[in-house]
# Entry
Amino acid sequence: MRVVIVGCGRVGSKIAKELTEEGHEVSVVDRNPLAFDKLQSGFSGRMVVGTGIDEDVLINAGIEAADTVVSVTKGDNTNIMVGQIAKFIFKVPNVVVRIVDPKSKMFYEKEIGLSCYCPTEVSCDYYIRHLKEE
Amino acid sequence: MYVVVVGAGQVGYYLTKTLLSKGYEVTLVDWNFNKVQLLEQELGGVVLYASGSSIDGLEKAGCSRADVIVAVTGDDEDNLVICQLGKRYFKVPKAIARINNPKNESVFKELGVGTTISGTTSIADAIERYVAKQQLCTLLTFDHDEMALLEAELDYDSPVVDKTIGEIPLPYECIIALILRGRNVVFAKGDTVLKAKDLVIAISTKNEQENLRKILLGDSEV
# Structure
């Protein structure tokens, strides 16, 4: 897999490390160069400093040859825009983005056709299930 | 006419005041509490504290009955989402986005937000128009930017000075329409002779613009 990960926070850096260890070709994009500190020094993937909503930055990260794009910055709207650029402009086959707001997630999944992961929904389900078991 | 303006920076603030003075009904939305409090003192109930890029916030702003939604925050990703939610979720007839990075103009267009305003592009165009020589100035674009109405001022060393329009090897997708010569307007015909200091008005496809520039203004790179 050739993967571009936008956002090198806790989630982005962990995905990057695990996929690299599995032998996938990974590049990570983040606006803040210090964010790459979360990757171990042995990280063999590519690190690109810049905003993910800039086409040139994404091209630099190899989006044209990528088959997967994951956008997990802390901004919903950034992820939404990155996801749409990847899916509709660069025609990347496999795109998934994080949207924290469940209503937005619903809209972008149903109306725009983005694949979204909503941590709010997932953790709410978990808490409620857990509380009911007690 | 009801207009929802999202983003209470300088642009949003002055836009709201301008629209109010023209008699429009306006709501100005921002999620910076201090900013909203400050603006409320001047503009009163027109200002709404809400997230303009969320469905809940836009609902509060009365987007379902808005005629226009304008996204003028300083972040392009927010402006994109505001306009997409406005158009697709709330069915607002017209959505207008401010674009900060000019490169995003085409991105917005491809993602369904065709009406954009870029301050950066406007200023760059103005510089081209008023300052730069040896340039084709774009007066107007149409057909989704595929066609442009262009203007060029012929200098004394232009290769087409003293030639008739019929003699100029113009590309097929290109036509010289008018010549502004001092106070006179000359309609371009095959036998019209071009003079130095003429302002040539031409229509061209995007593809042929560079060729047209070389033909009219010479080969030097800009």
